[in-house]
Amino acid sequence: MTRNSMRALPKAELHRHLDGSIRLQTVADIAAWHNLDLGISADEDLAAKARITTPMKDLQTVLDSFATIQQVLCSYEAIERIAFENVEDAYRDGIHLIELRFAPPFISAGKELGNDEIIEAVLDGITRGMSRYPIQVGLIGILVRTMDLEINRLAAADLNRYAASRYQNADRICGFDLADAEDRSRPEDFLPMVQGAREAGLGITIHSGENTSAAAVKRSLDLFEPARIGHGIRAWGDEKLLQRIRDQEVMLEVCPTSNWLTSCIGALEDHPLPHLYRSAVAVSINSDDPNLFGIDLVHEYELCARLYGFTETDFMRINRQTVEHSFLPRDIRTDVLDRYFPSAD
């Protein structure tokens, strides 16, 4: 398939971080608008500061690099623009259903910016995007494992409150996630917050098994009972765990280039994605932080075709599974399936 035909291929994506999907020009525009010091001397240095294109030492090094782009998430107007552009870029990738995730504790750190303002800006941005493009958008609220527990509790409560509110399109908040370094916190501390999100009707996905182990994935399944696992690639090789993932119909949200750039795998050719897929584990293909990594979802599809032999039939099957595992309401998922991913049966 050509790049144009790959772009035209209907797609769905469940694992894209809003704050890792900021255009470089937008970073520059907002920095100039708010007179922010990004620690660079000229515009041409911005890509070197805010983009990762070669493997880093480890996942933590990549997480630390978010400091530059975190600064520009600094006002309602900036966040609304970024959310809108996330939707626009997703549509240009050929995506018809996407879940974008964002972390109010991360965005607000060091700023006079409350959770309400952040949540409303994201909702308003995706609403503007959906009014312009034929795309369905869901939102996943993230708590940050390495941040203060009380800050996370407040963010969780506010996300749950908005999900149940009458604010425009607030029902688009459909999921809950734990992210950041899995090995630097006590997962039990977050169990009440996960339970609260589930009681509020949110779907549960947990970042796990990215740079940790199969045991970490098992612990996440035991403790949080998620419907999906963010990454989860370290489950490969543990047949008992893989059978449990299949039996419980848990989807792994796989992000190949991200896993390579964060040094969670040594080489893209060795990524377990094709093995997971061909062993009947439900997987979705995702870009994770496309503008941070200088890629798009089309790049990931091209990679899967070139390195793993995925065909158009494989992509269609993966995308149908992806839509089925979305946290958006059933009527939205059914409409997207009927329009863009008809069953071959």
Structure explained in plain terms:
With 345 residues, this protein is an alpha/beta fold. The chain has two domains: 63-205, TIM Barrel, CATH 3.20.20.140; 209-327, no CATH class. It contains 18 helices and eight strands. The chain has helices at 3-8, 24-33, 46-50, 59-64, 67-72, 76-92, 104-108, 115-132, 149-163, 191-199, 214-224, 239-247, 256-261, 273-278, 290-293, 297-308, 312-324, 330-340, and strands spanning 11-17, 95-102, 136-144, 173-179, 203-208, 228-231, 251-254, 283-285. Strands 1-2-3-4-5-6-7-8 form an eight-stranded parallel sheet. Helix 10 links the parallel strand 4 and strand 5 (203-208). Helix 6 packs parallel to helix 8. The longest helix is centred in the middle third of the chain and has 18 residues, at 115-132. The radius of gyration is 19 Å and the shape is globular. 50% of the residues are buried. The model has no long low-confidence stretch (mean pLDDT 94).
Helix content: 40-55%
Shape descriptor:
globular
Low-confidence runs of at least 5 consecutive residues: none
**How many DSSP H or I helices?**
18
**CATH domain fold name of the largest domain:** TIM Barrel
SSE pattern: HEHHHHHEHHEHEHEHEHEHHEHHHH
Separation of the first and last Cα atoms? 24 Å
Q: What would you say the CATH architecture of the largest domain is?
A: Alpha-Beta Barrel
Structural class category: alpha/beta
SS elements, strand count: 8
CATH superfamily of the largest domain: Metal-dependent hydrolases
For the CA atoms, what is the radius of gyration? Answer: 19 Å
Average predicted local confidence, pLDDT:
94
Biggest sheet architecture: 8 strands, parallel
The first-level CATH class of the largest domain is given as: Alpha Beta
- Strand order, main sheet: write it out: 1-2-3-4-5-6-7-8
Tell me what portion of residues adopts beta-strand conformation.
Answer: 5-15%
Structural domain count? 2
